[in-house]
Specification:
The chain has one domain (20-379). Helices cover 62% and strands 3% of the residues. The chain has helices spanning 20-37, 59-76, 79-84, 87-110, 135-152, 155-176, 189-197, 219-238, 242-263, 276-299, 307-314, 316-332, 340-349, 355-379; strands at residues 114-116, 122-124, 334-335, 338-339. The protein is globular and about 60 Å long.
């Protein structure tokens, strides 16, 4: 028996009905992840394609939690087999899949294993100073922990576990963060916790100090984004009326958005420390988007446009990894003394357009290049899964 996977196969109901809207949501998130990760210039980005600097929420902040939401959706469609499998078999497959995804994330961080110094000489990376956590690493851990909860707990119990995680995380962050400002960059508990486990050399430095926005402790509330997708998947399979299904999902999403905004007053919506309010708020938008897709695709039968996103949805993991490998490869190849990626941006996009538009067009073109690869794989029935 196969444990649920986060990639490749179309999502089916218990009756074998395909939910194209869920495949489209999965592809949409991968598409957006590639676009926001590969601008032509990090110094010229339109506001919706930027992360909030600290507290706050932008459309880009929704992309990662929405992918975790889709992971939970996929898990819900394999629930019966997952529950009925032997414990040793379930644990083996959970650890295997999580371990492989984590390893892929670590290798992607290490790639290309070499770098150029200030004089242009090629040197081997110091692996002892490489960042340990990252996007794929968080996905792996969330998949693993959510799998434990789903397998070992009754469905009703998972609701209490999810709520308990969010409330406990809030309490720990408040009581163990700096009294003056427990949710600040320097005063938050996630920074302190990760510093005890991970050497400073192996933490992200993008905020100006060793702090990882995909750190260990802040992965705990991210597990609830997976559980939210799991709960939504169960409801989609149970509810037969499409119109009522979309209304209930939209209502649940709106309530989550309102709850997140209310919670924001005391526990600010914040992606870098993945606050509980951020979990609820982002899950709310995932539910609203999903309800819209189900209404448009399943209810109204307007689906001719969906193939573009299906291509990304059928090989999401490999296409995301390939996007990282390709952009890094372009950065180490030099043309006229500058990285090839920058040369392409300057000559193919910036030469005839304004900076932010050129940067966005580069990102879109890069994403379309990956789509062509995904199209080739889909047409040749190449589906790579963990």
């Amino acid at each position: 028996m196969k444990a649920p996977t986060i990639i490749s196969k179309p999502l089916l109901s218990a009756k074998g009905q395909r939910y194209l809207s869920l495949d489209v949501l999965r592809g949409l998130t991968v598409c957006l992840m590639i676009v926001v990760n590969t601008p032509g210039s990090w110094g010229h980005i339109y506001a919706p394609f930027k992360h909030a600097p600290w507290h706050g929420f932008t459309p880009t902040d929704w992309v990662f939690p929405s992918f975790l939401f889709v992971v939970g959706n996929a898990m819900s469609f394999g629930l019966r087999k997952f529950k009925e499998s032997e414990r040793t078999e379930v644990l083996s497959k959970l650890f295997k899949r999580a371990g492989l995804i984590f390893l892929f994330g670590l290798l992607l961080t290490l790639f290309p294993f070499i770098y150029r110094d200030g004089e242009g000489q090629i040197l081997v990376k110091d692996f002892s100073a490489v960042r340990i956590m990252g996007v794929l690493q968080r996905i792996a851990l969330c998949y693993l922990f959510a799998g434990f909860i789903i397998h070992f707990c009754k469905i009703k119990t998972t609701y209490w576990v999810g709520a308990g995680i969010l409330l406990s995380y809030w309490a720990v962050m408040f009581f163990y963060g700096d009294a003056a400002d427990p949710y600040s960059l320097k005063g938050n508990f996630t920074l302190k916790f990760d510093a005890l486990i991970i050497p400073a050399a192996n933490l992200y430095k993008g905020f100006g100090l060793p702090f990882d926005p995909e750190g260990l402790f802040s992965t705990l509330p991210a597990v609830v984004n997976v559980l939210a997708g799991f709960w939504a998947g169960l409801f989609i399979q149970k509810e037969t009326g499409l119109l009522r299904k979309t209304r209930m999902l939209r209502l649940a999403g709106a309530l989550c958005v309102l709850l997140g905004l209310l919670w924001d007053v005391w526990f600010p919506i914040n992606k870098p420390i993945w606050t509980s309010s951020f979990v609820v708020y982002s899950a709310g938008w995932s539910l609203i988007v999903l309800s819209g897709l189900i209404f448009l695709i399943e209810k109204m039968q307007i689906s001719k446009w969906t193939y573009f996103f299906e291509v990304f949805g059928k090989n999401p993991l490999i296409l995301f990894i390939l996007s990282g490998v390709l952009i890094k490869t372009l950065s180490i190849i030099r043309v006229g003394g500058v990285p090839l990626s920058r040369w392409i941006y300057q000559n193919a996009f910036l030469s005839w357009n304004v900076d932010k538009t050129a940067s966005l067009l580069f990102a879109i073109s890069f994403m379309l290049t990956l789509w062509v690869v995904g199209y080739f794989m889909e047409k040749n029935k190449i589906f790579i899964k963990v």
